[in-house]
Amino acid sequence: MQSEYMYQLLTKMKDGDQQAFHTMYDATFQDVYRTVSFLVDHKQDREDVMNEIYMQMWTSLANYDSNCPFHFWLHGLVIRQVQRFRVKSWRRFRIFERIRAFSREESHWDQPTVLMDGTNQMISQSIQKLTDKQRTVIILRFFHDYTLEEIATLLDVPVGTVKSRYHAGLQALRKNVWNLPPERMEKINAYRKQNP
């Protein structure tokens, strides 16, 4: 959806329009979940992070700067919620929630079309093997087409740090998947953009 339409939805949401929120959720869910699925390993944790992202979206509407592109703002929310999840000490107690989750019906969160739409399973598995920091940079760069400078802004780290994580991530992917030189990786990425 176009950024102007998203901005109109955000304006309605600021006025308390819950239908606009549902429309926004439907329009952004697959993109957000695909990103979260690469950054958070367990299904139940993904659900929790997704809930936090959309709750944060609703509560931080007043802070949205209309000069900032909508998706950049949204991906900032995603990254912050994933980082918050990673540092919470209560994660060790999650095992009890997971045991209870096994007794419930399968959730719609892990539909194959959401997880694998537009991705190759082998690449997906290789991305999962990267460190959290490398994986975050690779996902933001290749799946959301952010520049390294924009990623540095999203992660609130120096550009040099992003470049280091990016190159280390690419090197690991080349080793695990293709054994290709860096220029071939860029060609593959360009092809993927042209043939979604």
Summary of the model, kept short:
The chain has helices at 3-14, 18-39, 43-59, 70-87, 94-102, 112-116, 121-128, 132-142, 148-155, 159-178, 182-194.
Helix coverage percent of residues?
A: over 70%
Distance between the termini: 16 Å
Number of helices: 11
Shape: globular
Based on CA atoms alone, the radius of gyration comes out at: 17 Å
Portion in beta strands: under 5%
Number of strands: 0
* Sheet of most strands: none
Runs with pLDDT <50, length 5+?
A: 102-119
Secondary-structure class: mainly alpha
Average pLDDT for all residues:
77
Q: What are the secondary-structure elements, in order, as H or E? A: HHHHHHHHHHH
What can you tell me about this protein's structure?
- This protein is mainly alpha-helical and 196 residues long.
- The protein is 73% helix and 0% strand.
- It contains 11 helices and no strands.
- The protein has helices at 3-14, 18-39, 43-59, 70-87, 94-102, 112-116, 121-128, 132-142, 148-155, 159-178, 182-194.
- Helix 2 (18-39) packs across helix 3.
- The two termini are 16 Å apart.
